[in-house]
Amino acid sequence: MTTTDDLPAVPEAGDETVAHGAASGQPERVAFGRNPRHFGIDPGEPWPDDVPKDQDDTHWRFENDPAGARRAELKIAFCWTLTVLASIALAIVYIDGANTQAAGICWGIAFLGLGIGMLMWARDLLPGHEVTASRGHHDVCAEVDRIAVAESLSRGTEPMARRPFLFKMMGAVGGIFGLATIFPLASLGPRPHTDLYKTDWTGGVRALNEDGNPIRPGDIPVNGILTVFPEVDGQPSTDALSPTLLINVGDAPFKIPPSRTGWNIGGLVAFSKICTHAGCPASLYNVQTHQLICPCHQSTFDVLDDCNPVFGPASRSLPQLPIGTDAEGYVIATEGYQEAVGPGFWNRG
Amino acid sequence: MSTTRERAAAQKRYSTQKSVMDTVDERFGSSRFLTSVLDKIFPDHWSFMIGEVAMDSLIVLIVTGVYLTFFYVPSSTDVVYAPTSGHVYAPLVGQHMSEAYMSVINLSFNVRFGLIMRQAHHWAALIFLAAVMFHMCRIFFSGAFRKPREVNWIIGLTLWMVVMLEGFTGYSLPDDLLSGTGIRVIYSIVQSIPLIGSWLAYDVWGGRFPGPSFIARLFIIHEFVFPLLIIGLLTAHLMILWHQKHTDFPGPGKTETNIRGSRIWPQYALKAGGLMMLVSGVTFLLAGLIQINPVWLYGPYNPYTVSAGAQPDWYLGFLDGSVRLWPHWEFRSFGHEIANPFFPGLLIPGLIFTIMYAWPWIDKKVYNDYGPHNLLDRPRDKPFRTGIGVAYIIFFIVETLACATDLLANNLHIAFERLIEILQYGAFIGPLVGFTIAFKACQALQRTDAHPIQKPLGGVIIRTADGAYHTLGDHHGNGHDSHTNGHTADSPDGHDAEPDGHEAGGAEPEGHEAAGAETEGAAEAGSAGADRATRLGRGR
Amino acid sequence: MTVDVTSVRRSHRLLAGPLALIALALVAGSVLFATGGVAHGQSDLVSTNPADITAGELLFQAHCQSCHGYEGEGGQTSAPALTDVGAAAADFYLSTGRMPLNNPGNEALRHHPYFNTVEIRQLVAYVNALPEITGTNVYGPTIPTVAPLCTTDTPPNPNPTGCVTLSEGQRAYSLNCAQCHQAAGSGGMLSKGNVVPTLHNANITQVAEAMRVGPKPMPVFSPSDMSYQQMSAIAHYVQYLHRPANPGGLPISHFGPVSEGFIGVILGFGVLWFATRMIGNRG
Fold first, then answer.
1. A103-125 as b/e, with b when 16 or more CB fall inside 10 Å?
2. pLDDT in tens, B107-138
3. Minimal CB count within 10 Å: which of A18, A234, A279, C26?
4. What is the ipTM of this complex?
């Protein structure tokens, strides 16, 4: 591999003479290790103390070891051959059904072969290691420049400062106009108003299962649990806050607060499925302890005690749906939910 | 050792390159600029490459992401999965799902290489975030955020936040049961914001959950808004880094005004290119061999079903964990309430991130150091900062572990109630313990180890068989005691068969500074390898 | 599992020896013979052979009555009465090794079955006969059959065999089962330390039995709120989950983002971290 000392007319390293635009009209080439341009030094500046002179940028690992260089070359060639083979294999994989695992192996080998080859080339066959250069003064300007930029800035700010009224008005304009430009964003959605209090459950609405069939109270066995939806146009509602759990606790000691008498049908009770913490379906039912658990953050509700939270981050009980039966004996809601379903919000009074 | 023919060929190549560069210069006056670009030096410490790993993952993400965009349908429209040709996933046939979900199922089962591109995209995201966080820790522990790099720290933190959200929006695009559950939780967190929560939620989602067109909006955010932000911020991040030049660890011969490393051309460019290939290779190996996000198993999203083990991707685990650990406190008065998810979901993370943003200025105050720094600290040099960093990391790990309470409880055979309690205490005690241990460790290391910049307080001198004297603690000349680094000195000057950062196989420790060899001048004669004479800059 | 010596002693005290047992068995057998074999939800999977019932009774006395009572009427411990549980419950608990239980206070978890298939058949026959023997005449679910899996992805119309599809199974599983047992059947956790088991070891009959029986802490899914079709579909889907299609590669336990995160960070990023250590230097 050739180095820069094969190129013409380069003075020996250590030669102090530096020619700038010699008499011949062409600038003579400066020794690389003495050329400030290659070391982050401005040509007019003195050479800094912390940048060694005459650094050899051209040194590479096997420059005196052709056998070693050849070995390195072969290793790289081997890696890149793997890449070529893997790429061809990839084409075959694609044609032959595109198996994901085979494709991953082919692609992986192709990339890794290429990459390891490149890294070996950088390590073994390239110059440019461990060079020291100056950081220069580019990160901080000279004081004269700083004065200049302050002068330029004040050319504009001085007139503004002389008109304080306009200046202040500009502030108000910017602020209010800025707010006005946000208004189109309000079209992205409706205002909530009281919408978060509503579900599709109202008095007399039938409970349907996921397949759209109504339920009789006897359908749910003791220790059984079923997800039901309010009937809307003959179909189960798709409203996200409406899914409700029908649970048959049998003759387990279920506490009925005075305001909720008649909300159950024997051992059959109905509670909102939407966790009051963050809205996941709180649907894991531990029959042994009569607890509903939400899988998202492990809020645990005691079904026998008004679905009050007994563990976890939820702080409000799951709302209970008052249920009864209609003339044909199917389960209906006798009223809608009496409180907002799901997670809390600022106005949830 | 070159022949006349080789010289002539080199001359010809040089002339050709010069005339090309002249042509460019005649139009752009770019020679000065291009010289500085080609000559630019990047220090070679391995930890400086982690940011590069992150950037390479981003490139993989962009390339695979564009490909996925051609197949993905960003629509919540209800369709029935009933493909008439190609590979069909039987357990979903005949079911209702969104068009978006169906397009992902189609891509996974019916498009050649569709699944591997999808999996590569997702694995690259996981690796990306790991690299970003590791990079952030490196910046923190080495003090690289100090003046003049405070703005870059802020840009970097913002990049981290945007990239986390980009990942979240990305894995929510398939509209499957698992990611949809996450969206539900985010809706609730937004809803819980005091004063404006429900308005904001209705605005962003277009109504009550799940909203009529949220998938389409997620798509715009993931494909357009966040990528623009990321590319813009990353460009600024790199331009600042370029302009200010990279920092470096202190060592002999290194000062605040010089920089040592590899030249971009050809060394660093090829190393960077090789690393890019490695990142891609690892990503695609994972993409082909290990399944990720099998959305067909979860099923399409609906708001009334859920699967056990509902977690976000790992990099958001800390948010989910903090929501699980936060006690059931809610504030209700005068007809208003601040719902529970607001505190662990927004307020506490907000406070923590604010401290992180402000850290460069906190650090200045703590150490009363307002000056610029191009040389880095070793973590042991700043015990308080290191202790705080360790405390933060432990807190982060506890919160991340907390996102998997149900899985961990099941596998460790303890009730999740106990596990959550343990983690709640751990979230406080862990960081305190971590801080104390790290602080003490730093102080101890400072006492016993030779400080890299100051003169050693005392040392052990060994004399080798060839008569050379060496001080233990200054072998490489870069301030590291090769013994504390775990190396054994098996050559007289302390250079090991497996020196730092170079592959085993008898590689000559190229990367080690000439300055080190200089201090051992007399030892050179007796040391192994005539190559030492050809070390950098020591004259030919 | 050791033979409970106290039960033998108890039987000695109460009924003075095998003679009384045989007498009881003869009575039971004759009752059954007279009624022509119990017809309540009887399936071919449950034996009504008096020999089986007798053998089952002997096994019951030896292994079960110390907790479940002499004739399965329940005991001092929390062990429930077995007189109305039905054959499905007995078969489920025995074939999954949940019973006999080492310690009455433990949660009944899957275990290597203590009894072989013949003994299980006999014990099931006995438990199935308990309602008649004890005169309670309340019958729990019998061992369910399961509708066949359709040969096509969509059910034929008309559907004379009543076959079910995996898709119906996936949908019903997602609504009724996934929240506890996890989308891929890997199991999970309930409150108070109750474990939700993985479904990867359950055969099709056991899955069907579990739905009908509701082995605590699992809820019950009876034919009135989960039809035969749905139950069969779920049972078939769970069998599919034993070996689901994993086109993406290694499934890493199907736990989802947690295991994926571990692999991505520790394996994926770890390899790259190692690579940077090799490429860069440590100076």
1. bbbbbbbbbbbbbbbbbbbbbbb
2. 999 999 999 999 999 999 999 999 999 999 99
3. A234
4. 0.89
Q: Which residue of A lies nearest to C175 if distances are taken between CA atoms?
A: A227
DSSP-derived letter for residue B325 is H
Task: Print the domain residue range for C171.
Answer: 166-242
Name the 3-class secondary structure at A76. helix
Closest Cβ opposite residue A289 in set C192, C221, C222? C192
C113, C120 contact by CB (below 8 A):
yes
User: Quick one: which H or E segment has residue A272?
Assistant: strand A268-272
Cα–Cα distance between B158 and B154 in angstroms, integer? 6
Check C282 against B46: CB less than 8 A apart. yes
Q: What are phi and psi of A335, to 5 degrees?
A: -145, 170
Q: How far is CA B301 from the centre of its chain?
A: 31
Q: Closest Cα of chain C to B20: distance in Å?
A: 33
Q: Would you mind telling me the total number of residues written for chain C in this entry?
A: 283
Mutation to test the C interface, candidates B410, B418, B481, most C Cβ within 10 Å: B410
Residue C119 lies in a domain: yes
Asked if residue A158 is part of any domain, the answer here is yes
Q: H or E stretch including B352? A: helix B348-367
Pair A184, A308 in one domain: no
Give the gap in angstroms from C-alpha B377 to the nearest C-alpha of chain C.
13
Q: What tokens appear for B306 in the block? A: 């859920």
Helix, strand, or coil here: B477? coil
Of chain A residues 28-57, which have a CB less than 8 A from chain B?
33, 37-40, 48, 50-57
∠ Cα A276 A282 A285 (to 5°): 140
Task: Tell me if C189 sits within 8 A of C196, measured CB to CB.
Answer: yes
DSSP helix/strand/coil, A324 = strand
Residue A304 lies in a domain: yes
What CATH number does residue C227 fall under? 1.10.760.10
Chain B: give the shortest CA distance to residue C215, in Å. 19
What is the full per-residue pLDDT of chain C (283 aa) written as tens digits?
A: 444 444 444 444 544 556 655 655 565 555 554 444 433 444 578 988 899 999 999 999 999 988 898 888 887 777 889 999 999 999 999 999 999 988 877 888 999 999 999 999 999 999 999 999 999 889 999 999 999 999 988 888 888 889 999 999 999 999 999 999 999 999 999 999 999 999 999 999 999 999 999 998 999 999 999 999 999 999 999 999 999 999 999 999 899 999 999 999 999 999 999 999 999 887 5
- Measured CA to CA, the distance from residue C266 to residue C255 in angstroms comes to 16
Smallest CA-to-CA distance from A307 within A277, A344, A333 is with A277
Q: What is the DSSP letter of A333?
A: E
d(CA C262, CA C240): 27
Neighbours of A18 (CB within 10 A): 12
Residue found by looking up tokens 């690259």 in the block: B124
What is the homologous superfamily of the domain B46-249+259-304+319-377 according to CATH?
Cytochrome Bc1 Complex; Chain C (1.20.810.10)
Q: Which domain holds residue A232?
A: 200-333
Domain-terminating residue out of A188, A215, A241: A188
Q: Which of C275, A346, C18 is nearest to B340 (CA)?
A: A346
* pLDDT tens column, C106-129: 888 999 999 999 999 999 999 999
CA distance B538 to chain C (A): 20
CB atoms within 10 A of CB B491: 16
C175 with B305: Cβ contact below 8 A = yes
Radius of gyration of chain C (CA): 24
What is d(CA C256, CA C236) in angstroms, rounded to the nearest whole number?
A: 23
A226 contacts on C by Cβ (under 8 Å): 225
State whether residue B271 sits within 8 Å of chain C by CB: yes
Cβ atoms of C46 and C124 within 8 Å: the answer is yes
Inter-chain contact A105–B339, Cβ cutoff 8 Å?
A: no
Q: What is the greatest pairwise CA distance in chain C?
A: 94
